[in-house]
Amino acid sequence: MGQPSTVPARDGAETTSPTSSEGSPAVSVRELTKSYGDVVAVDGVSFDVEAGTVVGLLGPNGAGKTTLIKSMLGLVVPTSGTARVDGIDVHTDPTAAYGRVGAMLEGARNVYWRLSVRENLEFFAGLAGHRPTEVRERHDRLLDQFGLAEKADVAVNDLSRGMKQKVALACTLSRDVRVAFLDEPTLGLDVESSMDLRRELRRLTEQEEMTVVLSSHDMDVVEDVCDRVVVVNEGSVVADDTVRNLVDLFRSKRYRFTLDSLPSRATRERLSSTYDVATDEWETVGDTVEFETALSDGERLHALLGDLLAAGCAVHDVTSVDPDLEDAFLRLTEREV
Ligand SMILES: Nc1ncnc2c1ncn2[C@@H]1O[C@H](COP(=O)(O)OP(=O)(O)OP(=O)(O)O)[C@@H](O)[C@H]1O
């Protein structure tokens, strides 16, 4: 299968450019390129993020996600192209842009473990020029929402890992930010803490119209909280669509065959070269043998069935394998599923 180019909207309609309250997308990246010497980390990337949505930025290691996030935060100067937050160019007007964004780049490593939870909130709000009294109400609300009220005066060092991560997210929100950039927000969290954090992200976007751009290698998290996913590979966008559409893109294209016995080596080699059935795909399950392969259309499915029958293989069952976001991601970035 060839590498797909940017995935268009499913119905072929133009994707509308959603807007924030000020008439611009919450985040807008245009033809952004960043090179480090000969290495092109980000290569002509464009996308918009609608206000009040969660967009996942996915890609294999080294794809360019961090460079992209840092460019959107004004921490990296692009070689060319622009990044805007609420219509403000983050490189030509960094002060105005900074007032609207929060970032959690290295999770709990960014917060001060010797300070109490509340002191951390006050410190991060103070960096943006807010006095503790001005933001007290906001901080009380955050502490309540994150289940941290009872720990407000406890040093971060004495909290569980999940709580530390929540403190880091609360610090990102310690002042009124409209867009939050979160790099691996659930990294290292147990299932319950990860669920809590996901719930909080959904609430922030649904009830407070906050916009979130997150990067994660955890597809469950992405599938759970993201409205849309931008997949980056080797510095370029290879897909930009809803989770559902990306999963649907590969639906019914992967099949699992169950045979009564292992075909001869010659047949297996032929299937490997003609239908891309990996030689290590054959799996014995009870009295049967199974393999999986991706087929582009019904004709290929028929041809493979015909070849199996001609080779004397008794086909017991053929089922289509339901893909998930992980399958879609691996296929989009040309990795083995
Ligand atoms: N400061 C830098 N100097 C030189 N090369 C860099 C620098 N930062 C990133 N790169 C290179 O740019 C490319 C993209 O890196 P980046 O960190 O943006 O990828 P990533 O998708 O965030 O990866 P990961 O998932 O591993 O964090 C890589 O080839 C990386 O080696």
UniProtKB/TrEMBL annotation:
ABC transporter domain residues are 27-259
Q: What is the top-level taxon of the source organism?
A: Archaea
SUPFAM superfamilies listed in its UniProt record:
P-loop containing nucleoside triphosphate hydrolases
UniProt cross-references to InterPro entries, sorted A to Z: AAA+_ATPase, ABC_transporter-like_ATP-bd, ABC_transporter_ATP-binding, P-loop_NTPase
The keyword Glycoprotein is annotated on this UniProt entry: no
Chain intervals with Low complexity compositional bias: 14-26
> What are the recorded GO MF terms, alphabetically?
ATP binding; ATP hydrolysis activity
Q: Where is this region: Disordered?
A: 1-28
Would the keyword Nucleotide-binding be found if you checked this record's keyword annotation?
Answer: yes
Keyword tags: ATP-binding, Nucleotide-binding, Transport
Q: Which family does it belong to?
A: Belongs to the ABC transporter superfamily.
This protein is called ABC-2 type transport system ATP-binding protein
Organism, by scientific name, is Halogranum amylolyticum
